[in-house]
Amino acid sequence: MSRRTVIGTLAVAAFLVAWQLVGSHNIIRSDLISYPSEVVTTFATMSASGELAKNAAVSLAEFVQGYVPAVVFGIGVGVVLALVRPLRLFFDPVLIAIYTAPAIAFIPILVVWFGVGAPSKVVIVFISAFFPVMINTRTGVAEVAEPWLRAVRAFGATRLQVIAKAILPGSLPAIMAGLRLGLGRAIVGLIAAEMYVSLMGIGRLIQVYSSAARASEIIVLVTVIAGFGFACVSLVRTLEQRLGTWRSDFE
Amino acid sequence: MALGLRVSGLATFIIVWELAARVGWLNPVVVSSPSRIVAAFAGQVNSGQYFGDLGVSLVELAVGFALSVIVGVVLGVAMGLNHDVEYALDPFVWFLYSTPLIALYPLLVVWLGFGFVTVVTVAFLLTVVSIIVNTLAGVLSVDPVLIRAVRAFGGDQAAVIRKVILPASLPLIIAGLRIGLSRTLIGVVLGEMFSSNAGLGFRMTVYGARLRTADVFVPLITFVVIGFVMTQLVGLIEHRLQAWKAVNR
Lengths: 251, 249
Fold this sequence. Notes:
heterodimer; A: mainly alpha; MetI-like fold; globular; B: mainly alpha
């Protein structure tokens, strides 16, 4: 084992042991901070009752419905804006303005527009993910576009061929970085929107338990979200590596 | 030509919005309109509430960011200089990085109370990780030969940090500050929305609950402006720094 693994594991273990002791002996009130074994028990209870799975399914559905279109439109709009200068100049001020504002600031107005149910969550996920994907695609495409365009054009390729064969593969690293950035923001947007007001979902559960200040349940829910985020990022990373090899083959 | 297109993009957006609300294509109660937002802005300014909220948010932003910079740079440098420190803190940094911290707000409110301290803490926790990660990357990128040179001429640890490590890792630290600053803003908005009774984020939720759309847009647009000004400022600093580096080479 490397020194990194040993020291890292020891540090985490020390933290968990200290937390367990402080919590279970009520040195700090355990209803305020809970403790690891209690968190595990709570997780088991919440899983067994189906409460966790039911709400996670709702959040996941909202996430997918917002994130997938955000990626598709983000890449599409990003490519168009990078290649068509007048459009870019025309739309830039409004798009950049929306991008620099934290997406979560749109939650109250979106709830007014789309109601307390799932649609407002889908929209906030979309907005949170769309802009990072779009801006990254645009930057990535703009960087590779010029020399590639000229090279591929010189061999008589059509505009579509240029985009499919040269520009998209060339800007892939930037696009994937956008996907990752969008992922994190979309998760925060989703949870915050569900906490703000909703009928179901993990964020809604957090809100339910927060009124009772149930530390164990909240820590379980936060860990579940963190786990989901971690799984998604790993997925994108794997995809990045796969596409990376494909790209080097292509070159 | 370029500037003209830019301005006309924004102008078209505002004019279409205003027209759509006036003609009745869109329900003005729901979507509001630029003129209604201006009126709402004037109302909030006149009642004195607007600048009160703005002040609260800006102070939280400044305090959260300043704390993050101090703690983040110190921890980042410590982690960069001592591998064991890095190994020990690494898991916690990544946990913080991948956790949607706002979900912890119910506990933060119980621990720290409702309002300023909790908002600053949310902003701090969101910001400090990106500053730590970038500072660490900066310190690790420093040429070890430079460090040995300072040591060879009798420089102590403080001299190494001051003369070599901080200047050499400055570009990456500044990049961390840029990412961090936008995260501080997110933290302040989230913190105020969920665990405060003051500030622009709190005000949005109040007006949102009463369906006063024009009033919701006032803090929202303010956040857009704050985000924009911050981005421009940091961009300017980065630009200066690059010019300075170029001259130094």
